[in-house]
Amino acid sequence: MTVQESTIRRGMFITLEGIEGAGKSSAIPILAAFCEARGFAVIRTREPGGGLLGEALRSIFLNPELTLDAQAELLLLYAGRRDHWLNRIQPALAEGKIVLCDRYEDSTYAYQSGGRGFPRERIAELARWAGITQAPDLTFWFDLSPELGAARIRARKADRLEQEHTAFFTRARTVFAERQAAEPERILRIDAAVPIDEVHVALLEALAPRLQRHYA
Length: 216
Prior knowledge:
- The longest helix is centred in the middle third of the chain and has 25 residues, at about 70-95.
- By secondary structure, the protein is of the alpha/beta class.
- It is built from nine helices and five strands.
- Keywords: ATP-binding, Kinase, Nucleotide biosynthesis, Nucleotide-binding, Transferase.
């Protein structure tokens, strides 16, 4: 398949999810290189973030000196997500590009509902109000224990979310698992506890047939 053939079709929206220390960020370049080698145009992005507004909100959202309640967190996330979707993700998909996004809606349910205890129906309502109604085409869930995740990030300066207790991430992991069980076709579980090279092999083995199917 040539680039010209692929870009006349709608692009593919791929998200990477998981708790802190799961290895999502290091996997983005691997996935991008794999897609680009096959002639696809790729956009790499993240949440919170993804644009001028999103990155400004990210600096607030992750600031360890700030205390935000669940509702404030949620409002910040959806302000940034609406801008991100309208000005970066949606246009890229319309151009036939592959969008690789580090975190999206699943993290909101895992962290703000599972971790914070915010009602899921309120999150769904806010998402609809913000115009976030299209799910990713494919989501990789990097699954590992909170204890291992904490051990991996111990050497770096923790942001506001990374400072949460193990119980917070245990609840978040439970919600990720529930969502994967409910949508097994969209959300693929990746064992993130194995060595990083094995994680990357598993990712690419899972991605290849999905690319072929999406752009067939």
